[in-house]
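Final report, Chapter 2: Outcomes

The project's central promise was a pipeline that accepts a single protein chain and returns its three-dimensional structure in a standardized token representation, suitable for archiving and comparison. That pipeline is now operational. To close this chapter, we reproduce one record exactly as it appears in the project archive, with the input sequence first and the structure output second.
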Amino acid sequence: QVQLVESGGGLVQPGGSLRLSCAASGFTFSRYVGNWYRQAPGKERELVATIASTGDSTNYADSVKGRFTISRDNAKNTVYLQMNSLKPEDSAVYFCNALNYVGDYWGQGTQVTVSS
């Protein structure tokens, strides 16, 4: 059974930090690109960060460059998103995605709210 389970979301004040985790099971996670997306109410889903299957290449949306860091531990079948200097506009549901030519898997999402 394929699963991606996100955790680590919550309420944080502006300028604060959160670390999201996404645990994969039921497939060979190390063969998949890892992505984090987010979707705010009334907005389209946005690609936030991408990491290659081996972890040696990353890309970020301009809106999060320098503040967010994506990483992965293939031994633990987990991808992470470290979010620093959070802003109210970062508030959204954050989704984990694993993608390659064989499969396209999604987690259920975790809510991140940045508010004072």
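Archive annotation: The two ends are 40 Å apart (CA to CA).
This record, like all others produced under the grant, will remain available to the consortium after the project formally closes.
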